[in-house]
Specification:
This protein is an alpha+beta fold and about 475 residues long. Among the domains are: about 190 residues; about 100 residues, no CATH class. About 20% of the residues lie in helices and about 30% in strands. It contains 9 helices and 18 strands. The strands form 2 sheets. Strands 6-5-4-3-2-1-11-10-9-8-7 form an 11-stranded antiparallel sheet, sandwiched between helices. Strand 7 and strand 8 form a beta hairpin. Helix 2 crosses helix 3. It is globular and about 100 Å long. This is DUF4367 domain-containing protein. Keywords: Signal. InterPro entries: LolA/LolB/LppX, Sporulation_related.
Length: about 475
C-alpha cells in the first residue's frame, strides 16, 4: 500500500512539473523573444496593412525582407491606385524607390534603427522588450502583448497590440491605436519565415528598379528613366490628343490638346489681342488646350501668342510686394492693380490669374492641399524653373510659414542628405534638414516638396496627406 502511494505521488509530481513547464508567462516569453532577436539572421514576410490616418482608409500589400547585418527591402503596393514603392537599405544608404515612375530618392540615415516600423520584426520585438509595463495575454495559438507604440514620426500612435505565434514567436498581427483607442494601423501577416535565404543583390537599387520593368504589364513603359516623349500637341492615330494619365510623361501631358486642337483647329485662339483682358486668363476658344487631367480647367499658353506674356505681366502683386514689383517684361506697369491684403477679393483674383499662368507653364494642373493650419493663408502662386524642369511654387504665411513646390521631373531624383522616412498613408515621403525641413514625396508622376522652418511635424504630415485627397477629386 505504501509503495502504491509513493508511485502515485511521483506520477502526480511529474505531471505538475510538466504542466508548469508548458505554461509561459510574460517574463519567459520576453526572454525567448530576446534570444530570437540575438540570433536573427534573416526573415521574409508578407501581409495586408490598412491605414486609417487620413480621411479614407488606405490598403497596402506588404512584403518585407531582412538579411543581417543591415539589409532591408520593404515593398508597399496600393492595388487600388496601382502604385508600388520600395524601401531599401544597403551599403550605399537608404532608398525610397517608385519603380513605375523610374524615380529614386537616396538619403543617409540609420533607418530603421532610429525609427520603428510596424512591419519590421525588430521594431515589434524591441517595443515589447522595452516596455516594462507591458500587458500579456493568450489567444488561441498566440501570445498577445499590449505595449506602448514607439514610432518617431507619428505623435498620434499611442498603443499597439502585437500577436506572436506561440511556437516560433513570428508576428501574426499588429494593431496600432491612438490615445482614444481608435485603431490607426492594422497589419495582418499572411506569411512569415525566419532564416529565409536571400541573395545580397536582392537589396540592390538597380536590380529593384529594373525588375519592375520585367514584371510590368505595360510593355511601353520607359526603362531606366529614359522616357519616350511625344512632341507637343502630337495626336494619336485616331486623331485624338494623348490622354494625360498618371503615368503619362509630363512633357506629353503639357502637349496634350483638346479634341478640337487634335482635329486640326489651331490652338492659338488666345492671340495677342486676347491680352487686353486686364490680366485675366485668356478667354476660352475652340482651340483651348486641355489641362493635364484631361479637363479644360487651365488654359495653356499657345506657341507664338503674345497674350501669355501680357497676362503674366499684369498679374496682381502678391501680398506685401511693392507696387512697382508687379511689372514684368510683358506688362505696361501703369495699369497694374495695387497690392491687396491676404483674404481680400483682389488677392483672390491675383491667385486665380497666377494659378492659370503657373498651370500653363508647368504642363500640369496645380494640386493644392485641402488642409491649412489655423491662422495660415495662401500668399501667391508662381512658376519656377529647376534645371530643365518647370514647376509651380505656392507660398503660405501666417501662424506658420511654408512653401509647396510641385514639379514633374523627367530625370531620376537622387539625394544624399540625412533624412527620415515618413509614411503619408498614400505614399512614402522623406524629411530632410534640421532648422529648415523639407518633406519630399512623389504622387501620380508629380514630385512635391514641402519646405518650412517653423511648421510642426504633425502639421507637415497633415498638409502632405491632404494633397492626395485633392488629387483624387
Amino acid at each position: 500500500m505504501r509503495r502504491v502511494t509513493w508511485i502515485l505521488a511521483i506520477v502526480m509530481s511529474a505531471a505538475l512539473l510538466l504542466a508548469g513547464c508548458g505554461k509561459k508567462d510574460a517574463g519567459s516569453v520576453v526572454k525567448d523573444l530576446d534570444h530570437v532577436i540575438g540570433k536573427l539572421e534573416s526573415y521574409q514576410g508578407t501581409g495586408r496593412m490598412v491605414l486609417q490616418t487620413g480621411q479614407e482608409p488606405q490598403e497596402y500589400q506588404v512584403e518585407v525582407w531582412y538579411q543581417q547585418p543591415h539589409y532591408y527591402r520593404i515593398s508597399l503596393t496600393n492595388e487600388k491606385k496601382d502604385i508600388t514603392q520600395v524601401v531599401l537599405r544597403n551599403d550605399d544608404g537608404v532608398f525610397v524607390l517608385t519603380p513605375h515612375l523610374h524615380k529614386s530618392f537616396r538619403f543617409q540615415s540609420d533607418w530603421p534603427e532610429n525609427q520603428g516600423q510596424v512591419y519590421l520584426f525588430q521594431s515589434l520585438a524591441q517595443s515589447i522588450l522595452l516596455d516594462t509595463e507591458r500587458q500579456f495575454t493568450k489567444e488561441g495559438n498566440s501570445f498577445v502583448f499590449d505595449v506602448a507604440a514607439n514610432y518617431a514620426n507619428s505623435g498620434q500612435m499611442a498603443r499597439q497590440k502585437i500577436w506572436l505565434d506561440q511556437k516560433s514567436l513570428a508576428p501574426q498581427k499588429v494593431e496600432v491605436s491612438d490615445s482614444s483607442s481608435n485603431v490607426l494601423v492594422k497589419l495582418d501577416f499572411t506569411q512569415f519565415e525566419f532564416g529565409k535565404k536571400l541573395e545580397k543583390d536582392s537589396f540592390d537599387m538597380q536590380r529593384n528598379m529594373t525588375s519592375w520593368d520585367l514584371k510590368s504589364l505595360d510593355k511601353d513603359a520607359p526603362v531606366s528613366g529614359a522616357a519616350t516623349e511625344p512632341s507637343a500637341g502630337a495626336a494619336s492615330p485616331d486623331g485624338k490628343a494623348p490622354a494625360a494619365g498618371k503615368d503619362t510623361p509630363a512633357s506629353a501631358q503639357a502637349g496634350a490638346a483638346g479634341k478640337d486642337a487634335a482635329a486640326g483647329t489651331p490652338a492659338s485662339g488666345a492671340s495677342a489681342g486676347a491680352a487686353a483682358d486686364g490680366g485675366k486668363a485668356p478667354a476660352a476658344s475652340p482651340g483651348k488646350a486641355a489641362a493635364a487631367d484631361g479637363s479644360a480647367k487651365a488654359p495653356a499658353a499657345a506657341t507664338g501668342s503674345g497674350g501669355a506674356a501680357a497676362d503674366a505681366g499684369k498679374a496682381p502683386a502678391a501680398s506685401g510686394a511693392s507696387a512697382g514689383g508687379a511689372a514684368s517684361a510683358g506688362g505696361t506697369g501703369d495699369k497694374q492693380p495695387a497690392p491687396a491684403a491676404a483674404g481680400t477679393a483682389a488677392t483672390g483674383a491675383a491667385g486665380a490669374d497666377n494659378k492659370a499662368a503657373a498651370n500653363s507653364s508647368a504642363g500640369f494642373g496645380l494640386i493644392e492641399p485641402s488642409y491649412m493650419p489655423k491662422g495660415v493663408a495662401q500668399q501667391d502662386i508662381r512658376d519656377v524653373k529647376l534645371g530643365e524642369n518647370t514647376g509651380i511654387m505656392v507660398r503660405y504665411q501666417g501662424t506658420y510659414n511654408y512653401t509647396l513646390l510641385e514639379v514633374a521631373p523627367q530625370t531620376q531624383t537622387v539625394s544624399v542628405l540625412p533624412g527620415d522616412i515618413v509614411d503619408l498613408g498614400y505614399t512614402l515621403g522623406v524629411v530632410t534638414g534640421d532648422e529648415k525641413k523639407t518633406l519630399t514625396w512623389t504622387y501620380e508622376g508629380i514630385e512635391f516638396r514641402l519646405a518650412t522652418a517653423d511648421l510642426p511635424h504633425d502639421e507637415l504630415v497633415k498638409i502632405a496627406q491632404s494633397v492626395a485627397e485633392e488629387a483624387g477629386k
